[in-house]
Write a structure and sequence with these properties.
With 472 residues, this protein is mostly helical. It has 16 helices and 3 strands. A 3-stranded antiparallel beta sheet has the order 1-2-3, with no helix packed on it.
Length: 472
């Protein structure tokens, strides 16, 4: 029986909070909550258990749809339209199951905050350290990718008004400032803004590529017709890199642990997940198909660069708040990982003491600087997306979840091996093996892609001033 089943049968109707120990009231107003992760949460400190299911859904969407959707049309160009859609649906099914397991595991193990805690349960101290370091690198890399996206948007909107390295630095400052907001409940309000902006931008892009004569990168003279292909014949490395980009578009899974940990009622997690995955898959397929069919091989990555010069500025201008929120969210998540690791079990975790604030600001600043260095050292958007998706995204989004189900249900087979149990064991083995294949193959493909990019054009060199939006 799960921890929540045992310790959370008494639910307060007014607050809809399910603590692991107790709730104290004063005139129908919550004064404290005892949580298995955060300890005693009081009114005087940050409320780490205040995210509703709607806020959860939008946070989930924002961890994935911000950067991933901008690479989907390019992956369709690499794989072909039909194989691209099929691969996207397969990845969607695999990652949606993994996401579901995150919520189930949290209900069974209330003391889990992040995927590092999962590592401890599965593999002991070594698992705790390996999963924790991998998660930290993953979210920092995504924050860096978000900073690079912000720099691209600022270049596009301003027609490359200044050095790209300056724009990346500006993005880092913004990410640090907003990422220092204490709780995901407060962050979720900005996530709504981010989702609206990024969806509006890609809708504007979709309309513009449909009504314009040709995409911005296509020859501007003579007759032109989209050269989209239903099937392509990519090289092995290119195919693997494209698969990695699709995985990255769905690889918010490791962050879902942190999100469900701050929910008021974790039992509503599946409801939020269904909305998130359904909306996201529909958007990915619709936007990917329409943009690729109209642009063909001249689709840009990020996709917002596929519009004409004027619409490109408009689309990037609208998307800019969404890119900022993505960066802010991943700076927050990376900082929160270190923050909780440093202060867990201490009174400073849930009280606004000097130690609390110095530790929190130190974590957000340190992670912002690390992400800035990554964004400046590898300023090739497509290559960075593919590398992160393959090396870290897959590793955190598939293999651990197969192990988690086996950890919770393996003992059931000792008494009776039902058909359902044997199917799920086979499915978990498939998820683990497929995850390792995608990790190894995708990493190879993305590294080859980055090397080829540098050989062909010298790439965008580290701390470069060159325009990464092709606006000048």
């Amino acid at each position: 029986m799960s921890h929540y089943d045992n310790s959370e049968k008494k639910v307060d109707a007014e607050t809809d909070i399910h603590p692991t120990a107790s709730i104290t009231h004063d005139e129908h107003r919550r004064t404290s909550v005892s949580d298995a992760v955060f300890g005693e949460i009081t009114e005087g400190g940050p409320d780490y258990r205040a995210v509703g299911w709607k806020g959860t859904a939008v946070l989930m969407l924002k961890t994935q749809i911000g950067l991933g959707v901008l690479s989907i049309p390019q992956t369709f160009d690499t794989l072909g339209l039909i194989p691209g859609v099929i691969c996207l649906l397969i990845v969607a099914i695999m990652t949606s199951w993994s996401d579901y397991i995150v919520g189930r595991f949290k209900l069974r193990h209330a003391d889990v905050y992040g995927i590092d805690d999962v590592g401890r349960k599965l593999f002991g101290r070594i698992g705790y350290e390996v999963f924790g370091i991998t998660f930290a690198l993953y979210v920092i890399f995504i924050a860096g990718s978000g900073m690079l996206g912000i720099a691209t948007a600022l270049n596009a909107v301003s027609s490359h008004a200044t050095c790209t390295a300056v724009f990346v630095a500006v993005a880092a400052i913004i990410g640090f400032s907003l990422g220092s907001i204490q709780t995901l409940h407060r962050v979720s309000w900005l996530a709504w803004v981010g989702i609206v902006c990024i969806l509006t931008a890609i809708l504007a892009l979709t309309i513009s590529v449909g009504v314009e004569d040709r995409p911005a990168a296509a020859p501007q003279t003579g007759p032109w017709q989209s050269d989209y292909k239903l099937f392509q014949n990519p090289s092995t490395a290119d195919a693997f890199a494209a698969l990695s980009s699709i995985v990255f578009a769905y690889a918010g899974t490791p962050a879902f642990f942190n999100i469900v940990a701050e929910m008021r009622d974790p039992r509503h997690y599946t409801r939020a997940l269904t909305i998130c995955q359904g909306t996201m898959t529909a958007v990915y397929i619709a936007i990917g198909c329409v943009v690729y069919c109209y642009c063909g091989s001249y689709v840009a990555s990020p996709a917002l660069g596929s519009a004409g010069k004027t619409m490109k500025k408009v689309c990037y201008g609208i998307a800019l708040p969404g890119l900022i929120v993505t960066t802010m969210l991943y700076v927050h998540l990376s900082a929160k990982y270190f923050f909780i690791r440093f202060l867990r079990g201490s009174r400073h975790l849930t009280r606004n003491t000097f130690v609390h604030w110095m530790t929190w600001i130190g974590c957000t600043a340190g992670n912002s600087i690390a992400a800035y260095i990554i964004a400046s050292a590898i300023p090739v958007f497509g290559g960075l997306v593919a590398l992160v998706g393959a090396l870290l995204g897959t590793l955190m989004s598939l293999q651990p979840m197969g192990c988690m189900w086996l950890y919770d249900h393996w003992h059931e087979g000792k008494t009776k091996k039902t058909g359902k149990w044997m199917f799920m064991v086979g499915w978990c083995i498939f998820i683990i093996v497929a995850g390792w294949f995608l990790t190894i193959a995708g990493t190879y493909g993305s590294i080859v892609g980055i090397i080829d990019s540098y050989k062909a054009s010298g790439g965008s060199r580290a701390w470069t001033c060159a325009d990464n939006s092709n606006s000048s």
